[in-house]
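Sequence only, no structure available. Ideas?
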Amino acid sequence: MVYPAQDFAAQFFSTFKEFPPAQKAATFTLNDALEKMSSFATMGGAGKATNRT
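Reply:
I predicted one. Tokens follow.
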């Protein structure tokens, strides 16, 4: 029962050699959050709502 599943999994994972993921995996780290916050602060609060009247 286990051997057919291992064969299927091996075939599936071998496709990643031929067709690797197209983008970086989604991860969240504290350093990433701090970099985003500091870049936002240095840009002077880009994306703030503006009064368009």
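The chain has a mean pLDDT of 78.
Hope that gets you unstuck.
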